[in-house]
């Protein structure tokens, strides 16, 4: 019998900041002995930035301007009462030596008079630079004095308020609920999840939002629980706005590293964020003073069935067989929703019984908008760039991007894997070889080093990207693997030497592969507030380490270009994009071949009234 290894000591990673010395501190704390076993000091003079903003930092940023007499005079000069002002703390980014050495935030404000949708009533051109450590106003910029504050008309989005004003929805849709009379098919023990042929660890995280780890899938032929991924999560988000003006050029956010996706995730709205059959998981985080608190119901787990088909085939009279075989697709979804200022991000990890993992990011919430004197497009001079779309009178939705980079520590059938590029290209036939002139051929190449694993996706350079275990072969000799299947995405059009792009250099490519290094967790660097781009995924990849038959990490970036339109006002319908991790020669055959079809006797009989009591098992 194998000897049981001792449990490793429990340690906590701590990021601290001292306002007195303006220095950051990276510590490792042994929780058993209550001792610090590692301590690294990062002075403000270094190329690194500062830790993510705490709740106290954000409160300091928005409250400091309101105590400044010059700011209050400026607000009143715009025709806005100070009591009607709500402000947002905004990271200032990095644009040279002038703002280095101290922790700064830019603050912009809105009028909440007659609306709760403050984002639609910007006090345009008014920007306050705040020193977060000194709690003081450094500078006030006011270059929008002639721009009116947009009206509050049609900014409401709350259901009860809209019902009071407009009555019930004109053509309502009957509600749909998924019922499981026999209960859920998955089990949760602590943070361990088991469902169908999957088992994985799921935990909320202050920065990433949610982390999936130790994902294994059972081989139906052998019963073996086979490794797929050691750890996966959203490592960083980059949101650059495309207006170079004084009040907008710095709006190039790194949401995970500056605010924390988990810290910005509130409890989910039962029945609306997640269906009736969902299970909820709490997050446990710490305040800036180290006190624990619970964020209730911030992650949900649920089985999804939407009438999709897992596989099917029919035969008819041509073959002489009368066959109709169809299997329903049921999946397991782990979901989190984070609200970072005006935007809402919904992240789904979806597991299928055929071994596929689908990661989906959905965007909703409010646009970040710009005030303007124009009330109609016919007033705009032909040579003037609005940097966006006129949504209503005096309001522009500014063009912007969203990039979400996922860190995927793949362990396909073990730790040592290789990255393989399968390039599809046109092949021409020889004269007399075939009636065909051309066909598509596939060139398979094992990538040896990190620089060669930088991938820019292109429709005109079609390829597949496999992570394989060269030491594990199928019965016919193919290496066991998973492939990265890109979905709809976007690429950054910013200059690679533009300051925000230097900080977000991880978006220079859609796929990267690096050698595993425990310190390389966050694509934009550990400390991102006012970072300069010296410690990013691009920096690590430049080391050009060997990745063939090594412990490797895959990085994939989902991208969205967003040209706002009127339908995005006053709140945006959700838009989504996804990518897949799909088994390739991992199983010897279709792993859900023996899946059972649904029959009428398997289902409850439900009356028209929406009540659990009205569903009974036949």
From TrEMBL:
<dbReference type="InterPro" id="IPR015798">
    <property type="entry name" value="Cu_amine_oxidase_C"/>
</dbReference>
<protein>
    <recommendedName>
        <fullName>Amine oxidase</fullName>
        <ecNumber>1.4.3.-</ecNumber>
    </recommendedName>
</protein>
<feature type="domain" description="Copper amine oxidase N3-terminal">
    <location>
        <begin position="52"/>
        <end position="149"/>
    </location>
</feature>
<keyword id="KW-0479">Metal-binding</keyword>
<keyword id="KW-0186">Copper</keyword>
<dbReference type="InterPro" id="IPR036460">
    <property type="entry name" value="Cu_amine_oxidase_C_sf"/>
</dbReference>
<dbReference type="InterPro" id="IPR016182">
    <property type="entry name" value="Cu_amine_oxidase_N-reg"/>
</dbReference>
<feature type="domain" description="Copper amine oxidase catalytic">
    <location>
        <begin position="177"/>
        <end position="592"/>
    </location>
</feature>
<dbReference type="Pfam" id="PF01179">
    <property type="entry name" value="Cu_amine_oxid"/>
</dbReference>
<keyword id="KW-1015">Disulfide bond</keyword>
<dbReference type="GO" id="GO:0008131">
    <property type="term" value="F:primary methylamine oxidase activity"/>
</dbReference>
<dbReference type="InterPro" id="IPR000269">
    <property type="entry name" value="Cu_amine_oxidase"/>
</dbReference>
<dbReference type="InterPro" id="IPR015802">
    <property type="entry name" value="Cu_amine_oxidase_N3"/>
</dbReference>
<dbReference type="Pfam" id="PF02728">
    <property type="entry name" value="Cu_amine_oxidN3"/>
</dbReference>
<keyword id="KW-0801">TPQ</keyword>
<feature type="active site" description="Proton acceptor">
    <location>
        <position position="255"/>
    </location>
</feature>
<feature type="modified residue" description="2',4',5'-topaquinone">
    <location>
        <position position="343"/>
    </location>
</feature>
<dbReference type="GO" id="GO:0009308">
    <property type="term" value="P:amine metabolic process"/>
</dbReference>
<dbReference type="InterPro" id="IPR049947">
    <property type="entry name" value="Cu_Am_Ox_Cu-bd"/>
</dbReference>
<keyword id="KW-0560">Oxidoreductase</keyword>
<comment type="similarity">
    <text>Belongs to the copper/topaquinone oxidase family.</text>
</comment>
<feature type="active site" description="Schiff-base intermediate with substrate; via topaquinone">
    <location>
        <position position="343"/>
    </location>
</feature>
<dbReference type="GO" id="GO:0048038">
    <property type="term" value="F:quinone binding"/>
</dbReference>
<dbReference type="GO" id="GO:0005507">
    <property type="term" value="F:copper ion binding"/>
</dbReference>
